[in-house]
Amino acid sequence: MTQTLTGTESGTGTGTGTGVGAGTGTRTRPGAAARKRLTPGRIVAWAVLAAALVATVFPFYWMVRTALTPAADLYSDSTSLVPQHPTMVNFLRVMGLTSQEEAVAAGGSGAQVDFLRYLLNSVVYSGLIAVLQTLCCAMAGYAFARLRFPGRDAVFGVLIAALMVPPIFTLMPNFVLVKDLGWLNTFAGMVAPTVLMTPFAVFFLRQFFLSIPREVEEAAILDGVGAWGLFWRVVLPMSRGPLLTIGLTTTVWAWKDYLWPLLTGRDEEVRVLTVALGIFQQQSPNTSPDWTGLMAGSTLSVLPVLVLLILLGRRLVESLNFTGGK
Amino acid sequence: MGANTAVARPRGPAGPASGEAPAPGRARRAPDDRKAAWLFLAPALLGFALFYAYPTVRGVYYSLTDYNLLAAPNFTGAENYQQLVTDDQFWNALKVTGYYVVVNIGSQTLLALLLAALMHRLTRSVVLRAMLLVPWLVPNVTVGLLWMWLLDTNLGFVNHILNTLGLGTTGFLSSPDWAMPSIAAVNAWAYTGYTALLLYAGMVQIPQYLYESASLDGAGEIRMFTRITLPLLRPVLALVLVVSLIGSFQIFDTIAVTTQGGPVGATRVIYFYIYEQAFTYFHMGYASAVAVVLALILGVLTAVQMRLLRASRSDLA
Known about the structure:
Chain A is an all-alpha fold and 326 residues long. Chain A is 71% helix and 0% strand. Chain A folds into 2 domains: 2-67, no CATH class; 115-324, MetI-like (MetI-like fold). Chain A has helices at residues 2-11, 13-27, 40-67, 89-94, 100-105, 115-146, 152-161, 167-180, 187-195, 199-211, 214-222, 227-238, 240-256, 259-264, 273-283, 291-324. The radius of gyration of chain A is 25 Å and the shape is globular. The two termini of chain A are 41 Å apart. A two-stranded antiparallel sheet of chain B has the order 1-2. Chain B has 13 helices and 2 strands; from the N terminus they run H-H-E-E-H-H-H-H-H-H-H-H-H-H-H. In chain B, helix 4 runs parallel beside helix 8 and helix 4 (88-122) packs antiparallel against helix 10. Chain B has helices at 2-20, 34-62, 79-85, 88-122, 126-137, 140-150, 157-164, 176-204, 208-216, 221-249, 253-257, 270-279, 284-316; strands at residues 65-66, 74-75. Chain B has one domain (84-316): MetI-like fold. At the A-B interface, helix 2, helix 3, helix 6, helix 7 and helix 8 of A face helix 1, helix 2, helix 4, helix 5 and helix 6 of B. Chain B: This is Sugar ABC transporter permease. Chain B: It is found in: Cell membrane. Chain B: Residues 1-29 are annotated as: Disordered.
């Protein structure tokens, strides 16, 4: 057990570092003077947090470590914290950058896999849904918040009632619909159910638009700006934060999505990462799974998330405040 | 369906109106924004009608039919529901799901509460919170594969540790007794950080001076947690519980990539059972009937939880 702890400490170096940094930060907060002393209780508390951090990060470390291990070493070298013969071949072969023979020699099942393409498909899938859904829901949310038209509250009520229907319930009829439209294995069919709206996004953005002071809009109306121009040129630029929040949560949701793309997008051309990982795992022999290849593919599905976290981590973390504190 | 046709009609005239909306000389907006409103709502209403309203109605209808995707649905009345009552696999799926939900939500909520409380009293670090969020940001499929490897009977790291400690080897995902708790623990791992952040957001809203005056009165951290944090957090806690409970009932991805409902049905949860019936055996009608039952269970749970939430609120006031 001690071996695990010391081993991962290097992996979580940044985390521990910031933890200490933030601890120093609290000292400047008023009223915290009594708490800055390192009492035994506080040491235990920090140790628990550190353990949680290790438990969070270690599986990812092990994933990367396995991905860098030659398949031939899997049995002989399955416990050391650093692979004895690190190699990139697993990444190369799951991205389809090696010849078939090389891939099989490195532990592949011989099935053609191209994780670069799946990665791109995932980006297209989540990007399309995030951008279009956010825009469409912003338009709808604005109409429900500001425009006056007969039946507004009734229509909104019906839309919100859809929050009560679990996704599995609409999954089967939606599958039949997309199949009947001939949209199976197309991006159109894959994004169709979520690209135009989700009840939550409409609700969330409406709440935000209701909270904007009307004065700003009224000034623009006096300048002769119509509802359409008002929305695009005045309201949207003011709403960057909430739009980004919805856009981000939708991106994460779409990135993780599995069941719907599994049903509607199995073909190589549109296969997203999650579906590809599932298929890859099924193709790999049950008795001795291609762990090094699977972990290389898994690593590729985690990397974009890390990029997102580095670029927008603060926004993402604080958006949870936003939705949770509502 | 009604909403659908209603959208289709105004779409024509609304098109050109978009260009004219910022027309000159319109100092004041008309009291009725009907035209603009339909334009704003058109995409969302179309999406709602086609992919929410219509399939909901159709799903209820399917549940009353015999439907295999190839031939048209054949109306059979309540037959699917009668079959459901005597279907052992259905009842087993319910039982297994209940077991999963209790273990998963129980462990995840307690751990998240602990983490949130520690963060709340120790640090405001955004980096720490961001790192705890990573398992939630990663696809469940990845989480499933990752833990399938870590929990592997022969080569998995967890069994390596257990062996080193002299505890022997456990087939976490291959033994019928261990499979479900293992899956529940894996998903608790994936969602604890996220849940902790939600709870933390609730704790941050508790006025700081309460802790300061309690501290001056000589109250310890544990006492402050049970007397200040927990009671004031109760509305947020109930809300988080509702959300995670409803999410937990819909476990699918992790099981689909790891155990596929096995061994011997030990992890065939209700979502997976519906999926299997619909897309492996093409019993669309029957699967829809099970989905109706799941929808009802989730509806009742939401109502019960909401009532609890309201009750706890009045306690506080």
